[in-house]
Amino acid sequence: MAALAQQYSGLRCPPLSSSPLSKASPLRAPQRTSFNTPATTVVSAVSVSNNPVVRERQRLKEIFEDAYDRCRTAPMEGVSFTVEDFHTAIEKYDFNSEIGTKVKGTVFYTDANGALVDITAKSSAYLPVQEACIYRIKHVEEAGILPGLYEEFVIVGENDVDDSLILSLRSIQYDLAWERCRQLQAEDVIVKGKVVGGNKGGVVAVVEGLRGFVPFSQISTKSTAEELLDKELPLKFVEVDEEQSRLVLSNRKAMADSQAQLGIGSVVLGTVQSLKPYGAFIDIGGINGLLHVSQISHDRVSDIATVLQPGDTLKVMILSHDRERGRVSLSTKKLEPTPGDMIRNPKLVFEKADEMAQTFRQRIAQAEAMARADMLRFQPESGLTLSSEGILGPLTAELPAEGVDLIDIPPAEELENV
């Protein structure tokens, strides 16, 4: 019986080639099984079912068949990254590369010619140095463009050699500059503009990074374009037209607005611009005022150069202000604690300037009050009625406390430069 069983034995369980585990650990079934009698068959089946190796192979087969069915019926079941997530990721890294489109990116390299910017495109974009700032710079780092900077750029072109995009910050800054100028015009404020050029009609000044035109008719002085070059002028906006790239400015309006704030008797800081035989021209915040030789000191000044020099800084008091003609008369004589201090000790005069000016204004106020009282006292007898300027003309604070000084008026052609 044993010999017959050996003759018909030799059945093997074929390996599951599709299972990775079967390749790593080749499993073998029992070498011999007898099929001669039912008892032998039952014994063989029981021995197979009790074999742990066979049970493991059967379990792996069931897992494989289950996975195969799920792949056919529900391929995305249990997957965290869905199709919607895939489309969202594509939209995140896909952008419109047309000229004028704004993109955000991170600077990762700079050199003398510009900067490379990562804008999550198929290739990096380039920011030329001339497109890095509204002002002229030699290196992008002068505009604060360093590796790691995350900024919004605008696409202005494409490089035909490698299909990389060309970016610009300058275009965005221009839009912001025009918006700022419109705001300043609406607020009617005074700004500073540096003169960078000129022609026969006027000068060109830079304001907020934009080049504006100042006609000579809108300049308060008789200076030429060459004389004004590289100087800063107080300006006001006359016209702001971004569509026409037209920016017109006025120095006269700015000066008139500044002069309106000059009160008679107020003390201001000035700089000596030039000396003349009859006095000195003083720059007081962009306005030229005349310090007449008779208003320098109570003591006689025979030579102005012995007291003042061009470039000197000093405190002066406003004596009078002709807004229509743009003329301002100044005095240091009224600020002297004692007569002659401006010649002997000018430092003391500047230290006591505010105190002396306050005393001067009080004396002017008293003189005005007395003059009005006199007019009211004589009014009933004369039958005169008071006008807005009074009987004796306008009462202003232009009257000096010691009386009216006799001042030599300089020639008209000289005063035109005031």
UniProtKB/TrEMBL annotation:
Q: Which residues form the signal peptide?
A: none
> What biological process terms from GO does the record include?
translation
Keywords assigned: Chloroplast, Plastid, Repeat, Ribonucleoprotein, Ribosomal protein, RNA-binding, Transit peptide
The molecular function GO annotations come to: mRNA binding; structural constituent of ribosome
Q: What Gene Ontology cellular-component terms does the record carry?
A: chloroplast stroma; ribonucleoprotein complex; ribosome
The protein's matches in Pfam families, at most eight in alphabetical order, are given as: S1 (PF00575)
Would the keyword Transit peptide turn up in this protein's UniProt record?
A: yes
Belongs to which family? Belongs to the bacterial ribosomal protein bS1 family.
Stated name of the protein: Small ribosomal subunit protein bS1c
* Native source organism of the sequence: Acorus calamus
